[in-house]
Amino acid sequence: MSTSPASGSTAGPATRAPLWATLTATLFGIGRMRPGPGSWGSAATVLLWAATSHELPPSLRTPIAIALALLVTLIGIPAATRVARASAVKDPQFVVIDEVAGQLIALIAIPPGWKTFLAGFILFRAFDIVKPPPVRQLEKLPEGTGIVLDDVAAGIYALIGMHLLLHFGLLS
């Protein structure tokens, strides 16, 4: 009679998501913070990007932001799928990898600074909460795809808003 956790068997009807999926989907547990786990995930992303972009040469900021957003999206979809299945909830609030992807998109090609980071955070959260078309429709896609892609679309809206604010000199 083996009780080894490595055996992969479960004791009850509920299954647990793999550790990699849980850590990824919750951004190492940040998704468990209250209130507003999505806002905590977005804030953590802004702070991490602020620290990272400060250390990068300006010529690498945009390509690295794009690469990170793409990587987070591609890893986030299967992670969110596994965690959603394990929790038996269509879009668990504690899954915040979608906010990470969307928030990173909102900061692509944005000059680092407290005003731009704050504006990017506010715009992304607003579009993520309001969900203008087609953001709400993307939410209806199955599992992790719907969980992540609606935030990707909200990030694209926020990115457009950010570049409009910059173009018209409203963040200088």
| Count of DSSP strands | 0
Global structural class: mainly alpha
> Percent range for helical residues?
55-70%
Counting copies of identical and different chains, the oligomeric state is single chain
Distance between the termini: 67 Å
User: How big a fraction of the residues is strand?
Assistant: under 5%
Query: What is the succession of H and E elements?
Result: HHHHHHH
Q: How many domains make up the 3D coordinates?
A: 1
Poorly predicted regions are: 1-13
Helix count equals: 7
Radius of gyration: 17 Å
- What's the overall geometry? globular
Reported for the largest beta sheet, the result is: none
Quick check: average pLDDT?
92
